[in-house]
Structures are given as structure tokens and as C-alpha cells.
Amino acid sequence: MLVVRPGGPADTDALLELAYLSGKGFTSLPENRETLAQRLELSAASFAGQVDPTEAWYVLMLEDTATGRIEGVAGVKGAVGLQRPHFSFRVVTFTQFSSATSTRFDHQALVLVNECTGHSEVGSLFLRPGRRQAGTGALLARARYMLIAAARERFSQTVMAELRGWFDERDISPFWEGIAAKFFRLPFEQADHMITTTDGQFIADLAPRHPIYLELVPAEAREAIGMVHRHGEAARHMLENEGFAASGLIDIFDGGPTMVVPRDRIATVRDARILPAHVADDPSLAAAPERLLAVPAAAAFRALRAGVLVGDEAIVLSSAVARGLGVGSGDMVMVC
């Protein structure tokens, strides 16, 4: 059985392995044991309600209970941009007109902004290559929204997601090479590493303060603006299905898009219901449609997909599913 559960310090080795598998440009999964260990400590404290909601970082681990192996990871940040600025580029259009020549020009440009302050963020969605099928990605992705639904007061009214930008067949980011590297003058790997292992002061120090006119940058870099990594298309579609939409903001390093949605308009958050569980190994459960289930409490959060019977007053689930969720008859269960 695949179960999504809170991540903690005991998951450091597994999370580091997933970080190595995720590849270049997956900024939220740095290949750094100390950074990941600190994140998992923060995750445990976040689920336990021991940190301010704006400083929380919830790490969700997808575990195969039959083998004990961690098959994927996802995360939710309580808020971004409060301890340090969360910079993005906004794509804007400047219009110029000369009456002397009757000429009009519309210039697209990138402008450095800090518009996401206080937004909650969903991200870090990664699965082992062999697990990217049969709805596993959807389980892990939607578990984040079930967590938000379980503890809405801990999250902002606006939720954002940043998607990894485009890398070519040589695993090079055209946006970085054509635009960002001109200002930071670092190898991409070093800058990417510094995002999660430093206070980010180098971004505030070096990021461009003036508009960057796109007519002046290489075509490959222009074409990469707002493009999603080849492994990120499924994630983009899942975000769109939940109600996320492009914001016009892009990542300052790889040009990947930022998508946003009001918290309460996230489809899974909006449609989730909480009902008491009735545990019974009813034969009709074998043909019951699969639903997304979760424990509606952050401290005890777990989520999985299983065939259940949903009535007006209770959810009927098998004893195996009840064990997977850690619930018994009479306990409250969230279903969507």
C-alpha cells in the first residue's frame, strides 16, 4: 500500500537519495545532507505545531508500506518571502510611440519583483522514475491539498507553485546561459546550491535592478521563458486541474513559470468532506470506487487512495485501509 505520511529526521537518507535522482534544476531538493536533515527536523516540528505557521515547512513522504521504501516526496511551505525576499521576474510590455515618425513599438521586458510575500507554496514534488504511473503522482500531489484542507488556518489565502524551467538535451538551461548568468556570473549548479544553503543575500546583491529588454537577449533564452521542464508537464497539468493558473511571474534562474490559486478554490480543498469512519471488511468494498482519503489533523496526517463507500453520515473502509491511515471506527476521515 502506498501511504503519504509526514517526513522527519529518520528520512534523511531516503530524501538525499531522491535529491540525487531529481537532477539539475530541482532547486527544492538540494544534494546536501545537512540542508535536508535540517528541513526534516523543521518538518517534524511543523506537523507538531511547534513553529509559527509562516515558518513551517511540511515534508510529505510517499512510502510503500510493503517494502518500507520511500518512493517520492512533496512539500508545503507555510509562507515565502517573509524572512528573505522571494524574487521573481515579471514579464511586462512597454509601449513607445513617436509622433514624429508615426512609429509604435511594444517591447517585452523582464522586471525584478517581490510579489509573492506571504504566499503558501506547494512544491518539491518528485517520484522515483519507476513510480510515475497509475495515479501515484496525483496521490502525492493532492495529499498536499488535503493537508491544507485539514489545517486551513496554517496556510495563506493564496497558494503558489513554481515549476522547473526548460533544460535542453545537454541538460543546460538556455534562460540561465542567456540571461541570468550575465548577472550572477556563477555556474548554475553553484547558484542553485546557494539558494537553499545560504540566506540568499547574493540574489539581493546581484539580481538586475533595471528592466531587461527581451529583444536584446538570445532567441534560445527568450523561447525558454515560462517553459516547463520535460519532466514537469504532468505536474503542470495537475496544478491546472486543481485551479492553478499562470501568474506572469517566472523563476529568476531557469525561467520556469509560477502558478497561483486562492487557497479555498483549490479543487481538492473545496471538495474535501470530513466524515466518521466505519471499519468493516464489507465484500462490496472490492468493487467500490477509489477515493482520496486523509486524516484531517496535521499532527497525525496520513493520506492514501482506496476503494471506500461514502454515505451521508459515514465512510465505510476496510481494516487494511484503516491501518494505513492509523484510524479506527468513529475516527474522523477526510475524503475527496
Could you explain how this protein is built, in words?
With 336 residues, this protein is of the alpha+beta class. The chain is built from ten helices and 16 strands. The strands form two sheets. It has a ten-stranded mixed sheet, with helices on both faces. Strands 13-12-16-11-15-14 form a six-stranded mixed sheet. Helix 1 crosses helix 2. The two termini are 18 Å apart. 43% of the residues are buried. This is Arginine succinyltransferase. One of its GO terms (molecular function) is arginine N-succinyltransferase activity. Keywords: Acyltransferase, Arginine metabolism, Transferase.
Keywords:
Barwin-like endoglucanases; Arg_succinylTrfase_AstA/AruG; transferase; 2 domains; ten-stranded mixed sheet; arginine N-succinyltransferase activity; 336 residues; Aminopeptidase; Acyl_CoA_acyltransferase
Short description:
With 336 residues, this protein is an alpha+beta fold.
How does the overall form come out from the CA principal axes? elongated
Percent range of helical residues: 25-40%
CATH homologous superfamily grouping of the largest domain: Gcn5-related N-acetyltransferase (GNAT)
Averaging pLDDT over every residue, what do you get? 92
Determine the N-to-C terminus distance: 18 Å
Strand coverage percent? 25-35%
Strand order of the largest sheet: 1-2-3-6-7-10-9-4-5-8
